[in-house]
Amino acid sequence: MMHTLLQQAIQEAGGLLPFHSYMRLVLYHPQYGYYMKQHPRLGRSGDFVTAPEMTSLFGELLTLQWIEIWQRLGEPATFELVEAGAGSGRLALDIYRTAQRFPAFAAALSYTILEISPDFCSAQQKLLQQAGCPMTRFRWCNTLDELEEKGVEGVIFSNEFLDAFPVHWVEMHSEGLRELAVVQEEQGLSLAVMPVAAPLHPDHFMRLGITLPLGMRTEVACAANVWMAQAARILRRGVIVSIDYGLTRAEYYHSTALPQGTLTGFFRHQQINNPLLHPGEMDLTSHVHFTDLAEVGEEQGLYTIGYTTQAWFLMGLGILQRLEQLARSQSVERMQEIRQTVMRLLMPQGMGERFKVLMQGRNFPHEPLPAGFSLHNAKQRLLQKNQG
Ligand SMILES: C[S@@+](CC[C@H](N)C(=O)[O-])C[C@H]1O[C@@H](n2cnc3c(N)ncnc32)[C@H](O)[C@@H]1O
Q1: Cα(160) to centroid(ligand 1), Å
Q2: In the chain, what are the domain boundaries?
Q3: 120 pocket-lining for ligand 1 (C-beta < 6 Å)
Q4: CATH number for the domain formed by residue range(s) 51-166+220-380
Q5: 2 — alpha (psi -120 to 50), left (phi > 0) or beta?
Q6: H or E element, residue 333
Q7: Is the C-beta atom of 161 inside 6 A of ligand 1?
Q8: pLDDT, tens digit, for every residue of 87-126?
């Protein structure tokens, strides 16, 4: 069915379907898109395992950061947590459970899950209900539009969410910047190039002071930037926290480091470099452009508070001290398992350095730095201008 849909879309686009439209269709088609269908995608049997699926310590530590933010905001009677893209609901459950250990914070907590997939919505509701969470404390919404009117006072956060947004896939040619497009050939789908179209500008990189070498292929994350701009407008008071694998602009567009960009697919735990394979069955993802997100936020009046690696962030929140504490109550065998998982979250070659954390705020007292950034803050590196 996805093949028929793609053929139609390619035909309607005049034979050349811009890659970002292809990515939107295969991930988000209401019936046949990867995120919209019913099949296991998370956990060991799925396509990827995320930090909250690995250990409840991740949610526990995030809760400590949310409590600090709530305190700095003067402990308001209602504190909103908006989790974007909540997957199985595991993180929401861990946060809710940890919050119960802090009654005043728990009483203020109002939890909104922003989730596009009906399948994931039901999984989240089932998990929270079965764990005995009062469902009146949670609400679901489909898009940020539903939060526009009232705005948010608290935290809008996500883990492994922005990397799934459709990207413009581009390539530098001697005639200038070109966009990659999907075409139908006799033997199947293949790639072609087309002129750059709005919202992307042919001088996009020149305007950023970046020279892309001939032949370099990379991504521009227009859709993620649009999302961030809207989230920033919605935030009245508090912070936006984005956790994902990603890079600064200088790293992303470095001429020799990533000559083919970061776009890739995940299909049953296998990384697949051809994004045209398994349409609708494979997760497509690219590294998050953290400099873009920070700049887009600043354009909307947010202040960039901190940018660091997941390892520094979790250590700032006391993950190592928590391990010591656990060692007093857990068996040697259990501690070995916990330590191995924590190492995966912290190791430089693992998630520790590939994953970054960005915190942006509005009407938020950001000095001294919140605990997650207290050991390390690479904000200056994120916002440095004109490197390529
Ligand atoms: C890779 S999963 C991450 C799940 C979870 N945050 C975790 O760490 O386990 C991405 C989640 O974002 C949701 N999602 C993707 N694009 C979305 C969008 N545009 N709006 C809302 N939810 C979206 C997916 O349905 C899924 O629940």
Answers
A1: 7
A2: 51-166+220-380
A3: yes
A4: 3.40.50.12710
A5: alpha
A6: helix 332-346
A7: yes
A8: 999 999 999 999 999 999 999 999 999 999 999 999 999 9
